[in-house]
Amino acid sequence: MTEAGGPAGTIGATHARYAPGTPCWVSLMAHGLTATQEFYGQLFGWDFRPGPEQLGPYVRALLDGEEVAGIGQLPPDRHLPVAWTPYFASDDVDSTAETVRLCGGTIGVGPLDASDAGRLAIGSDPSGAVFGVWQAAGHVGATVSGVPGTPVWNDLTTYETAGVRKFYETVFGYAEEAVASPDHDYVTLHVGGHPVAGLHGVGAALPRDQGPHWTTYFEVADTDAAMVRVAELGGRVLTPAQDSTHGRVAVVADPEGARFALIQEPR
């Protein structure tokens, strides 16, 4: 991965509209909405605000009054994987959804209006990895970045990048930068010259029970302490904390199994 900021603006400030293709929001659909709020509220210090109603039982997570993420409740009869889903900004979600289909992806939800907040679609790339598309109206997406408790990066883990990089470039207009290494299949996606997301091909190392998937990284002040807190709150540590060029990283799961990463900036 690499470092990425939010939309133009100072860190911690309320942001204007995101450039198309920029990750602007992350959302989690869980079975137990109340218990999930308690877990993330204690882990990241989030408060919650209801809505929009069109999404069913759904809350927006707030950090010091600024919106950072969304959590919704799955219908009782829907036995779907519980996972964090990144949303990418679009000026025209209907057009983007059509491009997704033309490029070999699928659209499973929408496009549909979310009250006066905006318009959304949820789809998957040709490898099956799920992502969202968001056309902002009253809700631009996350309004704060670069502080503990906020999403700072999204990585796609897939079999190999060659099969999906052209898909994302065509759908969202990304420029790309590949890691020059014969044994490391990694591509960074750029918007306006800035890195915004990564594609990581891992071949046979991809767990069969997961398939290709996006992982959201949340910034924390202390990865080791946050990792311990995840376990105390009923979650699991999947990959213990380790140092990287981008910070100290751990991969964890919440009590329902939703995977996400914790990252502490290098000291």
Write the layout of secondary structure elements.
Layout: E1 23-30, H1 33-44, E2 47-50, E3 58-63, E4 66-73, E5 84-89, H2 93-102, E6 106-114, E7 118-124, E8 130-136, E9 151-158, H3 165-172, E10 175-178, E11 185-191, E12 194-201, E13 213-219, H4 223-232, E14 236-244, E15 247-253, E16 259-264
Parallel strand pairs: 1-4, 5-8, 9-12, 13-16
Antiparallel strand pairs: 1-5, 2-3, 3-4, 6-7, 7-8, 9-13, 10-11, 11-12, 14-15, 15-16
How would you describe this structure to a colleague?
With 267 residues, the protein is mainly β. Helix content is 15%, strand content 42%. It is built from 4 helices and 16 strands. β14 (236-244) and β15 form a beta hairpin. The longest helix is centred in the first third of the chain and has 12 residues, at 33-44. The chain starts with 22 loop residues before the first strand and ends with a strand. Residues 2-14 have low confidence and may be disordered.
From the 3D structure, determine the CATH topology of the largest domain.
2,3-Dihydroxybiphenyl 1,2-Dioxygenase, domain 1
What is the CATH H-level superfamily of the largest domain? 2,3-Dihydroxybiphenyl 1,2-Dioxygenase, domain 1
Straight-line N-to-C gap: 17 Å
Q: Based on the structure given, which CATH architecture of the largest domain is correct?
A: Roll
Largest sheet: 8 strands, mixed
String of helices and strands: EHEEEEHEEEEHEEEEHEEE
CATH domain class of the largest domain: Alpha Beta
**Structural class by helix and strand composition:** mainly beta
Please state the CA-atom Rg, rounded to the nearest Å.
Answer: 17 Å
Global geometry:
globular
Number of domains: 2
Helicity level, as a percent range? Answer: 10-25%
> How are strands sequenced across the largest beta sheet?
2-3-4-1-5-8-7-6
The low-confidence runs, each spanning 5 or more residues with pLDDT under 50, are 2-14
Give the strand content.
35-45%
Protein name: Enzyme related to lactoylglutathione lyase
InterPro entries: Anthracycline_SecMetBiosynth (IPR052164), Glyas_Bleomycin-R_OHBP_Dase (IPR029068), Glyoxalase_6 (IPR041581), VOC_core (IPR037523)
Keywords: Lyase
Organism: Streptomyces achromogenes
